[in-house]
Structures are given as structure tokens and as C-alpha cells.
Design brief:
The chain folds into two domains: about 200 residues, 2-enoyl-CoA Hydratase, Chain A, domain 1 (Alpha-Beta Complex), CATH 3.90.226; about 45 residues. The protein is built from twelve helices and ten strands. The strands form two sheets. The chain has a six-stranded mixed β-sheet with strand order 1-2-3-5-7-10, with helices on both faces. Strand 1 and strand 2 form a beta hairpin. The longest helix has 16 residues.
């Protein structure tokens, strides 16, 4: 499976899904326009997320782009149209729904940043649990330059993941930063040469897929709720108690004693 800019893709159009055992890959697929997202792409992404959630065989999802960039963000013309629509006075609402849905996917998610990431797509990538980027990647959040007050869940994600000082720098200055800076502030989980992106993503995906799926899903949910300041303590306690008498822990302890990899 390929995630680098040299990967082959279907004819340009909406994002598409491929699966390989426990791994699902969603690829943004408008390379001519740096994978700029259109309104129909948002609907397509929501449908793909639903398909992933409905398939118990999928344990990890990778989100990546086609061509030389990950994504140039949401189409500015669409934002302007939505902002003046009588039916929706909040610019970017549909995009926010997609990003929040991605953050809440039960399976672990990896963003394979095959190139630059700009505008709203910086938040799309940030909603993934891990971000592995090539050394030539860069990011740019132009909201202040465009006169746009970004939606609150996106700002919260920046603050909770990158810290208040980095969030202020990226939003208020609208400065472009390169991959080493992205790594330093914690935007990137790892930075690799372009020819090492596929291997790095697959190694992480296989590590995640080999772990106990119910435990992984439950802990991901708890971590996200804590980051948002919305922890459902009773539900988290219940997941903990259930895990203590579940099949996963029985297999995990048995495998540990037998000095073999667990089979979840």
C-alpha cells in the first residue's frame, strides 16, 4: 500500500476507500487542485467513515492525499456561499461536522502527510490520532489573513494538541511553518523522507492493529473526552471494569505468560 506522492490513484474525484485486512485507507483525490475539498467531498467522507465504523474487521484507518500535497483545505468559494446562505449562516459548518466525526472515529487513525497541508485541512489532519509527514511538508492556517474566525471545535483541537502558544502563533500570525517546526510543536508524530513514508505508516498501522481492539477504542474515547474537558467518568469506569473481566485481557495475560504475541 502506498501513501507517498508517487502513489497511483483513481481518476480525480471524491475521496475513495481501499481496504487491506484490518487497514482501511481513505485517499483525497483531486491532485490538480492540491486535493482541495469540495462540498460533495464532505458528504463522501462521512459515508466512508460510516462504512469503516460498520466493518468490524477494520482496526486502523489511514487518511492521505494524492499528488504533491495532502490537501489545500476547504474550497473558499464554498465557504463564501455557505456564509451568505439563508439556510446556514455559519461558514464552514459542514466541514466542522466532518472533522469532528473523524476525531470521534472509534478506530485509531493515522494521517499520512504526503506533502503540504493548508487551511481547514490542517484541522482535518489534527483530528487524526497520529500524523506522519514527509520532510518537505509544510502547514499554513490563513484564517486571520482571510478575515475568518475559525470554528470553536477546531481552535479547541489546536489548543489541546499543540498548546496555547502554538495555537496563537499559527492562527493569529497566519505564518507558514515547515516540517521540522511541525515536528517540534507536536503537529507531526514523526517526520520521514518521502521514500520512507509508506513503511513508517504501515509499521504504526500494524502496531495499532495488533493490540486489543476494544481496549484501544475505549482508551481512545476516554483520551479524547479528557482533552475536550468532557469526560464521561461513569462510562470510562464502566469500560475499565468490563475490560477486567473480558476476553481480551484473558488472552493478553495468557499470551504474556506463554511468551507469544496475543491474538485478538
Amino acid at each position: 500500500m502506498e501513501f507517498a506522492s508517487t502513489a497511483k490513484a483513481e481518476p480525480a474525484g471524491p475521496p475513495f476507500l481501499t481496504t487491506d485486512g484490518p487497514l482501511a485507507t481513505i485517499r483525497l483525490n483531486r491532485p490538480r487542485h492540491l486535493n482541495r475539498l469540495q462540498a460533495e467531498d464532505l458528504d463522501a467522507l462521512l459515508r466512508l467513515f460510516d462504512r469503516i465504523e460498520a466493518d468490524p474487521a477494520i482496526r486502523v484507518m489511514v487518511l492521505t492525499g494524492t499528488g504533491r500535497a495532502f490537501s489545500a483545505g476547504y474550497d473558499l468559494g464554498s465557504i463564501a456561499e455557505r456564509a451568505t446562505s439563508e439556510q446556514d449562516q455559519t461558514a464552514g459548518t459542514a466541514f466542522e461536522v466532518v472533522v469532528n466525526r473523524l476525531e470521534d472515529l472509534s478506530v485509531p487513525t493515522i494521517c499520512a502527510l504526503n506533502g503540504g497541508v493548508y487551511g481547514g485541512s490542517t484541522d482535518l489532519a489534527l483530528a487524526c490520532d497520529f500524523r506522519i509527514g514527509v520532510e518537505t511538508a509544510e502547514m499554513f492556517m490563513p484564517a486571520a489573513r482571510l478575515g475568518l474566525h475559525y470554528y470553536k471545535s477546531g481552535i479547541r483541537r489546536y489548543v489541546s494538541r499543540l498548546g496555547i502558544d502554538n495555537a496563537k502563533r499559527l492562527f493569529l500570525t497566519a505564518e507558514k511553518i515547515d516540517a521540522p517546526q511541525m515536528l517540534r510543536i507536536g503537529y507531526l508524530t514523526a517526520m520521514v523522507p518521502a521514500d520512507a513514508l509508506d513503511d513508517a505508516v504501515l509499521r504504526l498501522a500494524h502496531t495499532l492493529a495488533a493490540n486489543a481492539p476494544m481496549a484501544v477504542r475505549g482508551m481512545k474515547r476516554t483520551i479524547n473526552e479528557i482533552a475536550r474537558g468532557e469526560l464521561d467518568e461513569a462510562a470510562a469506569d464502566r469500560r475499565h471494569r468490563d475490560s477486567m473481566r473480558g476476553a481480551e485481557i484473558a488472552e493478553g495475560i495468557k499470551a504474556f505468560a506463554e511468551k507469544r504475541p496475543p491474538k485478538f
